[in-house]
## 1
Amino acid sequence: RGASEDVARGIDVHIRKAQGHVRQLNRDLHGVRFGTIQGMTIRLQRDDRMEKVLSALREGPDQGLLFDTSMPIEQALEELFRRHGGGRTGGHKLLDYREYVQLAVEVRRQGSGEWERANPSRMSTGEAIGVGAALMMVVLTAWERAANLFRGKRSVGTLRLLFLDEANRLSHDNLAVLFDLCSNLDLQLLIAAPEVARAKGCTTYRLVRRTNDDGRPEVLVTGRRALEETTDVGA
């Protein structure tokens, strides 16, 4: 009791909504820069192979296949995907709008006007973490913005904390990239890394477990922060 073109229309609606979400995320990413990365963007493109399936649902001789009473819906989906999607299996993908689009994250480096796909193998550890953290924060910001629309009283916002544990591969340069990102996005970074003890611009905490005079276990936390070098000017 339906038409396959209605299914295609519903998928198109979801894709347009996703495009709108991506545009908003890209607006939030505008101005994000850290290290040598001077820009980030999300690309959403339609999948050419799945577009053929969508066209078959809109028009053509196979429109009635989806609502054929003599065939189970699972079998009809598989047959549609076999005829137009180029695969023997995968019919379950036809009703999920996310299968009809491709997402990619691209970055622009300092001194270059070209966008390149974010590839962890071509980035430093700090840059790769920074890209992921920046995306995470703009998504959380979008969720928070959407949630506030349904609240009578606006909330005070989420805690902007970034936790990294056992970050043993981070060098001084990588840490500098992350500090730059956190400063740009107004994030507070809590990280466990050996190189932090000698890094500038952060507070290093030391935790010592011990037993007090009463025989109870306790943890002594001390913190130190490197002071910025200043030059005294005489009168």
## 2
Amino acid sequence: MKPTDVLIYDTTLRDGTQGEQINFSAEEKLRIAQRLDEMGFHYIEGGWPSSNPKDMRFFEMAKKVRFKNARLTAFSSTRRVDLHSENCPNLNALLEAETSTVTIFGKTWDLHATEILGVSLEENEAMIWDSIRYMKAKGKEVVYDAEHFFDGYKNNGRYAVKTIKTALSAGADFIVLCDTNGGTMTNELTDIINEIIAIIPPHQLGIHVHNDCGLAVANSIAAARAGVKMVQGTINGFGERCGNADLIPIIANLQVKLGMKCLPEESLRHLTKLSNFVSEVANVPILHSRPFVGKSAFAHKGGVHVSAIIKNAAAYEHIKPERVGNEQRV
């Protein structure tokens, strides 16, 4: 891949389904996964196999499908505190999913280790190391999601860094820095990433941010510009609370505006259809005001605007709508 390439990791089928009104059957999840694969997405997170029967059914169905472009990924937590990795049902469910890539999340914020999990900081590190080593011993590519990384770094930076170093030493292929609460400002996020890049090579870093401050897209783009290789998010920003980072404007901004390749050029012209397709499968209203792909994104009503675009569309359109599969309307 070229140095400017960004790996797009979609978690619509897992993190996206944590949105209040978002529910997919196993069959619907498979339809979406196949559509994302056709578009050239690099990673598709199919679900958390041990969390519910529907996700396990999805992975069973997916075994019969040949994905041409994407790596299907199964998701889980680190091992349970009271079990060895080989006896942990969560980790063994990952193996049963039979995906070449697995994603494991662990606690980075010391508050979560001691107050939420109720374990010592040392035991939390051991859970991270053991879980990743177990998956690497099974021949898996491992993406490690450092949950609550930015809050953890701001609260106890030394420990937060220690946990991701532990994950890296255990063999993790990617370390994904997560703004799980969605409360990190863009300038904070960029400053912290620049500090981490001095420790971990940027081609092994990813970003996963939530939208609680309305900054998920901006923060994801800032991370990619800082050198982070993998960008995680969901189609249409589906997700818990205020949602995840919306991959549609992220891809459009990175590739069309900044020249950072994410998907094949032909796929950009299908972004509008993809956005509408996922909304229709989820049975939620299509939002006309979505950037780039909404029905109103290139619609003109005011007389001054209309008069201008008749002469030159660039007067009130920042890109040609056809580039992302949309169209101009008056």
## 3
Amino acid sequence: PARRPRRAGHPRAEPLAGLAAAAFALHPLQAEAVCYVSQLAEVLASALALGALLLLARAWDAPSRPAAAGWAAGATALLALALGAKVVAVVVPAAFLAWALALGRRPGEPAAPWRRAGRALLLGAGAWGLAAAAVARNLAELGPGASAGLHAGALGPWRYLLTQLRVHWHYARLLAWPSGQSVDTAFTPSPAVPDPATLLAAAASAALLGGAAWLALRAVRAGAASAPAWRAAAFGVAWWYLWLAPTSSLVPID
């Protein structure tokens, strides 16, 4: 794990990663994760999900196929526990795929991203199966108004999605300036016909995601030993949106 930050190719990866992790661990925003009981499920699911991702990364680096299969099986078991805590852990296989595409290439390896994608899908096959089963179960069992995502109470999926475009930037603002935290933040829903605030939020999200895709493409063309900042930035944007997806999109969760 101590060598994992070097994946991005930055010469000072370890101290920078340690500084970022320490700052985030002590960030005032973390108070929301520990100050009310219902959030403990999210903390547990997140810890187990990160453990599953680390095991998948070990499987990626394993010297033999049996060793890789063993690490991948352990990751699948941890993901099962994470899903038992909270369904937000369905993100794990997609997060691993993003990791493999952005940071999985070593110097001298083929440049084609589809090779890394195929290997990531193979190693994460068990995780993908668990995630699909969890989503299918939620779709089958949750009634109207019972979940975030497809039903979203009285809003419906369209207005819920429009509202979450603005909520994403509210989260980003809390990260930059954590004032106004609450157990349950009151947020005015977006209208069915997008208003200027919603359109601005959508444009900003599209620009951010488009910029991340552009950086990722430049990193692919530059090679494995180049463009560490581009690859890290692209992965960071993907990480942000992936982990918000279960509660800020149409993904159904209990």
## 4
Amino acid sequence: FIYAKDRKSRFLWANSLTAHAMGVETPDELQGKTDLDFYTPELGKKFYADEQKLFESGESLLNIEERLIDQTTEEETWISTSKVLMRNEEGDVTGMVGIGLDVTEQKRVGRRNEQQAEIIRNAKIMIGATTPEGQALFMNQHGLDLFGYSTLEEIAGKLILEFHTQNEH
């Protein structure tokens, strides 16, 4: 998404992807309007307030993740947004340029990875990983309990054979 807004957060221009995400056919349909014209009052007010803080602070925002509802599909999306101030020749802030990258899929993959990691950590079987030489890299809680350890740090670098030998005595 690429767009520019004036100090009152009204769209000056936008690309077609921004227009589509806002639920309109062409970028021209955004001109002169604010997020309040497209999003719920709660979300529109939040975006407006965020942009006004940007104008007041005089500092750009980089890579801020924002949750949106796509106005066409009504699905939750996550956008990594950067907003850079536009200034006139005297240095006064006249507006801003925003760039957004859809990071929804990365968020979903991250959530799935977290869920899988949680399953592995809490499995009622021993799950672990070693180097090719047999040194412990990871062991879930069940495995740690079996060998009498409480933290991963205690097993780091130990040979799995050492666990077996220590627990036979």
